[in-house]
Amino acid sequence: MEIERASVGKYVLRNVRGGSMSMGTGQDASFTPVELLLAAIGACTAIDVDHITARRAEPTQFSVQVTGDKIRDEAGGNRMQNLTVEFTVTFPQGADGDRAREALPRSLQQSHERLCTVSRTVELGIPVSIVEAAGSTGD
Q1: Mean pLDDT for each consecutive 10-residue tract of the chain (139 residues)?
Q2: How far apart, in whole angstroms, are the C-alpha atoms of residue 47 and residue 34?
Q3: CA distances (Å), 37 to each of 22, 102, 111, in order?
Q4: Cβ–Cβ < 8 Å for 125, 86
Q5: Is the CA virtual torsion 50, 53, 54, 58 positive or negative?
Q6: Would you call 110 exposed, middle or buried from its count of C-beta atoms within 10 A (0-12, 13-18, 19+)?
Q7: How many other C-beta atoms lie within 10 A of the C-beta of residue 83?
Q8: From residue 113, how far is each of 3, 7, 54, 64 by CA, in Å?
Q9: What pLDDT was estimated at residue 138?
Q10: By three-state DSSP, how is residue 16 classified?
Q11: What is the spatial distance between Cα 46 and Cα 59, in angstroms, rounded to a whole number?
Q12: pTM, whole model, 2 decimals?
């Protein structure tokens, strides 16, 4: 993942496959870093759940709401708490829809406990290293 500055508070994210999107501070329609974190958590689980349940039946509704509270903790640092990923999923009537409905709770649990790399990493609290690249301070 590469992030390039476009202007103050505006950045372009690029992945190795050529995809790009804008990111910013919330002053325009661009996603903020916190929104991207929430989106990554929700999307990771959504992909897992969709792959498992759609083998049984195509959903008639599939939406995910991800919420959390941004707080300043006792140490004075910003962080998120109360992260919740809420699924609203419906399937058609019939045997296939019944099988998909039956698989839904198990797929949510499997994603949370072992499949979703993003939410598992957040929950485990993996350290992040912030480093300055050699030669980046001047010409």
Answers
A1: 96 97 94 97 98 98 97 95 97 98 98 96 94 79
A2: 20
A3: 14, 29, 17
A4: no
A5: negative
A6: middle
A7: 16
A8: 30, 40, 20, 18
A9: 63
A10: coil
A11: 12
A12: 0.90
